[in-house]
Amino acid sequence: MLTITSASIEDAPTMLDIQRRAFAEEGRRVGRLEDGQEIPPLAEPLADLVEHIEGQTALVAREGNRIVGAVRGIVTGRVCVIRALVVDTDRQGQGIGSALLHALERRLADVDRYELTTNPITAGNVPFYERHGYRLTELTHYSATVRLAQMAKPGRGEPRQ
After folding, report:
1. Which of 21, 24, 91, 118 could form an S-S bond across to 125 if both were Cys, CB 3.0 to 4.6 Å?
2. 21 in a structural domain
3. Does residue 43 fall inside a structural domain?
4. Which CATH number covers residue 139?
């Protein structure tokens, strides 16, 4: 049975491990960035994730005692930026990502807008978010190998079109 709860500091190492495994294929496909760095989800230090858990919204999905996914939301003003929606590699495609996204949107329901960035190099990323009401707002060439899709969805405070 899947349960979604707020993340604790103790969950941070597992969340980071799942994040790194979830983004590993994308990292292999794009290689290193022009400055020699890994893509941000692969290079994020544990301390940054802990800081996020302490100061913003972080949720984990559990099956029993096992964490199988996570998502984070950063609210600035009336906008929620969704970060690191990840599902463990052996559990992808089973509705966990959708459940986490819906839980985050319910938890942070009073924002005007939800925003996120995803890499369309992974074929299912953009369609996944489109199924959940997100629309492509911009495509940015971050580097020679990385193209990013910025997507957004109205929250309660923004009129729907």
Report:
1. 118
2. yes
3. yes
4. 3.40.630.30
H/E stretch holding 62 reads strand 57-63
Query: Whole-model pTM above 0.85?
Result: yes
Q: Give 81-125 pLDDT, tens digit per residue.
A: 999 999 999 999 899 999 999 999 999 999 999 999 988 777 788
- Say how many CA atoms lie within 13 Å of 85 toward its Cβ: 24
Domain count, the chain: 1
- What is the secondary structure of 75-138 as a DSSP string? EETTEEEEEEEEE-GGGTTSSHHHHHHHHHHHHTTT-SEEEEEE-TTSTTHHHHHHHTT-EEEE
* 99: containing domain: 2-154
The helix (H) or strand (E) run that includes residue 41 is helix 40-43
pLDDT at residue number 35: 46
